[in-house]
Amino acid sequence: MQDKRCFAKLTKFTQEHSNNDGTLRNYTPKELCDLIREISTYFQTTMIVVDGLDEITNDHRAEVLSLLTSLNTPKGSIKTLFASRKEIDIAIELQDYVQMFFAARSSDLRLYIACEIERSTIQKELRIRDPSLKYQIMQTFVDGAEGMYGQVHTSLL
Predict the structure, then answer these.
(1) Domain coverage including residue 133
(2) Three-point CA angle 52, 98, 75, nearest 5°
């Protein structure tokens, strides 16, 4: 969905954070969260999906999680879904969220990787003539993901 008022807010935010030469000045994560909150008021529901929370460095993770969770308020219209590998500090910070766990299944990965190899070959992005090499690529990815699991924390439900 689009709303012209959102573009006006974004334009104002950009102007307030621009230098005279047109380059952007740094803005704080809090300012960005405030902008998201403001823009979300123009919609009945705003959904935010954040993947890879576990990839945030430990020294910034608590601050980022705090800001992201602050987007959800009891009467707010923002719904969030956070995905990450299982990490204790993330689980503690998001303990009030509905949590779902998932594990990579090698059969699903094998099918997906085979399709991607075939698609890339057809589109000439990947040039492999030896079928055993295709199998070896697929097996390497599947073996690398074996036992990989993740966790989803959501306020969507």
Answers:
(1) 44-154
(2) 100
pTM, two decimals, is: 0.63
Task: Identify the helix (H) or strand (E) that includes residue 30.
Answer: helix 29-40
Residues 6+ apart with CB under 8 A from 70: 33
Per-residue pLDDT of 96-136, as tens digits, reads 888 877 666 677 777 877 888 888 888 887 777 787 888 88
Query: Is 102 within the bounds of a domain?
Result: yes
Please tell me the number of Cα atoms within 13 Å of 68 on its side-chain side.
24
3-state secondary structure of 87: coil
- Give the integer Cα–Cα distance in Å for 59 and 61: 6
Sign of the dihedral through C-alpha 141, 142, 143, 145: positive
Percent of the chain surpassing pLDDT 90: 13
